[in-house]
Amino acid sequence: MSKLVTVFSFSGKTRAAAEKIAKEVGAEMFEITAKAPYTTADVNWRDENSRCIVEWKNANARPEVEVLPDLTGVDEIWIGYPIWCYIHPRIVNSFIEGLKLDGVKVHLFATSGMSGIEQSADELKKAYPEIEIVEAVRV
Q1: What angle do CA 46, 79, 31 make, to 5 degrees?
Q2: Pick from 24, 32, 54, 129: most CB atoms within 10 A?
Q3: Contact at 8 Å (CB) between 80 and 18?
């Protein structure tokens, strides 16, 4: 039985949460990175032209992931991310779509200043009904 905690983090807050989860569940950690890294200007949710807002408005946006983890032997995975504008960053979709998650239990976790994870979890469950998402928590 192998476990993996994965995380997309811009500011480091979500990474810190992932490190705690990895230690708690005895899992290796993998950082999700974008091929075109996000800048501070990219995540300015007050700017209608910022990358996070443009991606938020386009549910089909799929920022390219730098590298995907090898899931050989992994039967449980945690996917962590910040909540941006009530949902997950679209790179989470890119990440999930690049993986083979058949038979893998998926746990979602997110960090957020105000928003819950419910909208994000609902959107991911609807987009990927074949994936067994067993929990979604805001940390």
Answers
A1: 80
A2: 32
A3: yes
